[in-house]
Amino acid sequence: xxxxxxxxxxLNNVQNxxxxxxxxxxxxxxxxxxxxxEAEKMAEMYYMDKIAQETPDVRADRIAEIKExxxxxNYLSDSVIKSAADNFLSAIGI
Length: 94
Fold this sequence. Notes:
Layout: H1 10-22, H2 37-54, H3 60-71, H4 78-91
């Protein structure tokens, strides 16, 4: 048994202090995630690489169709060649 000094119980002070510390409230701000620009770019590159690996390199149906068109001597005219060149240049951004 601990007797208080001058009618002050030292255990009450410690118990009150612990109650105050344990019930201190902390504001809930929620969790957030932020990515660096480098991480975002790497994620985009990973996604593009995955799509490229899943995409077939050759479309056999289109190749067969074009081979048949080329066999026709009237197909390769100046307008067809110009149209193909324009489509190619616009595809690469020129």
